[in-house]
Amino acid sequence: MSLFRTELRRLAKRRFARWMTAGGLLVLVLVAVGMFLSNQKIGPDQFAEARQAADRQHQEQVRWAEQERANCERAKTAGEDVDYYPADCADITAPPRESIEEQWFLPSTFNFRESFGEMLIPLAAILAMVGFVVGASFVGAEWNTGGMMNLLLWRPKRLTVLLTKLGALLTGLLALALPATAAWFGSMWLVANWRGTTEGMTSGTWQSFLITGLRGIVLALVAATLGFALASLGRHTAMALGGAIAVMVVGQVGLGILLSMAQVRFAEAWLLPTYVYAWMTKSLTLEDWQACNATYTGECNPATLDITWQHSSVLFTVGIVLFLGAALWAMRRRDIT
C-alpha cells in the first residue's frame, strides 16, 4: 500500500481536520452573506434619494447658521462675552450646496474592481489559519498517541515518513484551497452583479486578482508547513499552537509596544503581519512622521520605507528552512520513544 495514499486517507478521516475545515468554510460563507446584505445596487432611485438627503443636510446647515447668527447678534447686543463668536456675526454662514456631495449619502455598494483585491486577504488569512492548525494537529496527534512509532515499525525510514506526511498535508490543503478560492471568486462576482457593479474589469485586472489569489494559497501552504514543523519539533500539537500564541501575543504585541516606546523608526518593519500584508498586496509603504523630507515648496513629507513581496518571500523561505530543517534534523537524531 502506498504510504502517500495512506497519509492522505488518514488526513481526510481526522475529525479535527474536518471540523476545522468546516469552520473555516462557514466563516467564508458568513462573510459572503454579510457582503450581500450590507451592499446595494445603485441606480436612479438611490441617486435621487442621495440628492434629497444632501438637500436636507444643506437646509439644516442653513437653519443652523441663521440661528447661530441670530444668537450672536443677540449676545453682542446684550453685552455678553462672545469670544466664541466671530467679530462680525454676518460671517456665520452655511456652506454652499456644492460642498455637500451627494455621494456621501449613497448606500454601500460592492465595486468588484476596487474592492475584490482586499477581499482576498481574509480568504488567505482563513486558509492559512486552517492550514496551520490542521498541519500542527496532523503530526502532533501522531506523536501524542504513539502512532508515529507504530508507523515507523512498518516504514522505518524516518525522513521519508515525515516528508510524506508533509506532502499529504500540503496536497490535502491544496485540494481545499483551490476550489475554495474559485468559489470565493464566484461568490464575490455574484455579489457585485446583484449588489454592486462589475464595470471596468480588464484582462490585466483579472490577472492581478488571480496572482493575488495564488499568493493567498501559497501563504496557506507556508502556514501549514510551519505548523507541521513546530508540532514535529515539540512532538505535540500544543508546541505549534503555543508557539503561534507566543509569537503573536508576546512577540508581536509586546514587541510593537516596546518599539513604539523606544520610538524606533519604521517599527512595523519588525512585525510579522506587515510582511504578510505586503505579500498579499505586493508592496506596503511605511511612513515615519518623525522625520521630515523638505520639498522645494516647503512641504514636509514623511520618510518612507517600502516592504515588497520579495522581502516577504525571503522571510517565509528562511522560516521554512529553519523550522522544517530543525524538524527533519530532530527526526533523524532523536530517539523515537
Automatic annotation (TrEMBL):
It comes from the Bacteria. The chain crosses the membrane at residues 16-37, 119-141, 162-186, 206-231, 238-262, 314-331. Keywords: Membrane, Transmembrane, Transmembrane helix. Pfam families: ABC2_membrane_2. This is ABC transporter permease. It comes from Micromonospora lutea.
